[in-house]
Give the backbone structure.
Amino acid sequence: MKRIIQALALCIILTACGKDAQKDKVTTLEAEVMTIHDEVMPQMEDIMTLKSQLSKKIQSIDSMQNVGISSNTLAEQRIKAVDINQRLNDSDKLMMDWMHGYQGDSAKKLQPAEAVAYFEKEREKILLVKQTTVKSIQEAKTFLE
């Protein structure tokens, strides 16, 4: 009887430790997701600035073409500026969509295993936002140099 009680106590302790480990993992993953978000969010201002600069570049090219200055180089620059501007828009939209879809508070109320799965998926999504944002900003800066 004593051994049965010891075995049951050990199972309870191990189960409790496993749940604590899962809760710790949830907390760690949530913090990681928010850290990535906090790195990327300030770059949304950079995106707006670069979009404005690209719009001015496009307007300048359009003005030159309207007064009869035309070349393949200008046409190519305009196409590239419009394309980069669209990528900046896409980056901004990805961030806004991610923020609107993020349900961190609700996820913390889930069972630990489900919460871990949720935050792992959110980490993947916000990493995609980060990669897309960094790439589009770099392309715009390079083009505008």
